[in-house]
Design a protein that fits this description.
With about 120 residues, the protein is α+β, with helices and mostly antiparallel strands. It has helices at about 5-15, 50-55, 85-90; strands at about 35-40, 60-65, 70-75, 95, 110-115. About 15% of the residues lie in helices and about 15% in strands. The structure holds iron/sulfur cluster (2 copies).
Length: about 120
Amino acid sequence: MPVPGRILREALKKKKRATIMYPFEKPEVQERSRGKIEHFIEKCTGCGLCARDCPAQVIIMVEDTRTKTKKKPEFHYDRCTFCSQCEESCPTKAIKLTTEYELAGSDRSKMVIST
Ligand code: SF4
Ligand code: SF4
């Protein structure tokens, strides 16, 4: 059974701060953390599995104007929960979640990734 005063003393011993002065200081981002989506159009076959599996309906399949024969995903990331299901579902590894986390903005219409 720990002595109550001892816990407090141990906590105060730690010199490292628990908080940082964000945004003036940036936090250390873990390699596995999930942020903004990156889409590699050259790997994309337009299969639509990412759009089918996205639980937040972030992905809309639109016409690929370059090929005119296939569709491509458009990501409306203002709705994204960063669950990474799209990355899991993509058979050609055309989607990757980056560690970019500063995604706030005042115009939702600009929060679109269209490659
Ligand atoms: S990370 Fe999740 S919520 Fe975001 S686009 Fe992919 S599947 Fe949808
Ligand atoms: S699952 Fe992958 S290959 Fe299929 S449309 Fe989405 S990004 Fe393209």
